[in-house]
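Ticket #4471: complex job returned nothing on first submit. Input attached below:
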Amino acid sequence: MRHIAIVGSGPAGYYTAEAAQKQWGDDVRIDIFDMLPVPYGLIRFGVAPDHQSIKGVTRRYEQTALADNVRFVGNVKVGQDVSIAELQDLYDAVVLATGAPRDKDIGIPGDHLKNVFGSAAFVGWYNGHPEFAALDPDLSGHTAVVIGMGNVALDVTRILSKTREEFAGSDIVAHALERLMASKIKRIVILGRRGTHQIMMTPKELGELGHLSRTAPWVDPRDLPEEVEDALLEPGIRKSVTHLRSFAAIPESHRADLPLEVEFDFFASPQGLMGEGQVQAISVERTRIEAGRAVGTGEFYEIPANLVISCIGYQTSPIEGVPFDDGAGRFANDEGRILPGLYCVGWARRGPSGTIGTNRPDGFGIVEMIAEDFPQSQRKTGRVGFDALAAARKLDVVSFDDWKKIEEAETLRARDDAPREKFVDVEEMIRASGHD
Ligand SMILES: Cc1cc2nc3c(=O)[nH]c(=O)nc-3n(C[C@H](O)[C@H](O)[C@H](O)COP(=O)(O)OP(=O)(O)OC[C@H]3O[C@@H](n4cnc5c(N)ncnc54)[C@H](O)[C@@H]3O)c2cc1C
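Support reply: We reran it on our side without changes. The output follows.
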């Protein structure tokens, strides 16, 4: 029998488990650890609450989770409740699928000011991540600035823009919905260092921004190159640029009637945040593109900003005993191998890029590597050994059955138009699971 520990129950964790089942069938036992009592990582806490169809991928993970040889070991933080060395003693292979949960620093003066958030925190707030549920963003000001030109910046902008009706069917948590409905924000500026032809936003998500009831996005036509140049673009980017062209063509008269302005500010590099206590303005340097890179032009301007959310990427949290690549912000690894018997996968391996599906080949690849490295099982004790350790330490382990009870309780307490009302507090989750 082969024993595998997977640390992290997001997409990378579940795809790895699925691959291990395919590889070894009944000859493997898989424990999937998570520090939270609830599974699925960013599917629950990252993917936007109004994108429920994307969250449907968890049905596939549930099939894996319900197999006899797979266990969910929730509410156990690896590196704190149990060490990597202990897991390595117990399991033939340990796979870190811990994602990249920390915001990259904006690294400009004033980034410590109140009401300046990274997207991990702000998205975690509206998605009910226990660590960020108490974030308490102040939405009483006039202008929000969103930094970044990727899909997370789009998610944040859309969530700040929607009406209560437009949130129907979403699982946005109640505290965020109520705060958003009382929001006084009248203008959202999306800042990107590069230009329209370097946009990272994908067409479907960008198109959605054009269908909101309170706003019609604005792009300065002067930021768009001659249309003939679009032909040189990769097809996905070309489609995104087509959306930008359609935003630029919206007549001013239409926009004037709407209560919220959303504007794209391309070629704009944030330089500093100003304010007394709370942020009040952002200073920006105009850029131009040289060989695909944004370089400063020396022209500076200020934008009033009462709320700033930077969506510029994420990094992995280090774990004691695991070599870390500080520059890249993830575990130091060679195609997923960290140390003998220790692997990483998903965002913890390659950083925050790609879609949910990108994690699937990652999971399958890592299982092939484990099979190559350890053609024979090493006769470890696996889950029996872990259970003894958990009992000795009095760890309050949450099982997949316990999670199903939490899920049921969340469904029962949902608003009429919502699939669930998430618990945002670990203690509440544990109580709902039936533990004392
Ligand atoms: C805001 C946002 C929106 C997104 N929207 C989309 C989208 O619409 N479509 C799409 O295709 N992709 C989307 N993505 C990308 C997608 O979510 C990721 O590709 C995917 O979640 C990465 O999977 P992962 O398993 O590597 O990490 P994660 O999903 O982050 O899972 C990591 C898990 O590890 C656990 N963990 C961390 N540390 C420990 C520890 N020490 N001990 C135990 N457990 C631990 C965490 O609790 C978490 O459950 C989005 C990402 C973000 C940030």
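The chain has 16 helices and 18 strands. Closing as resolved unless it happens again.
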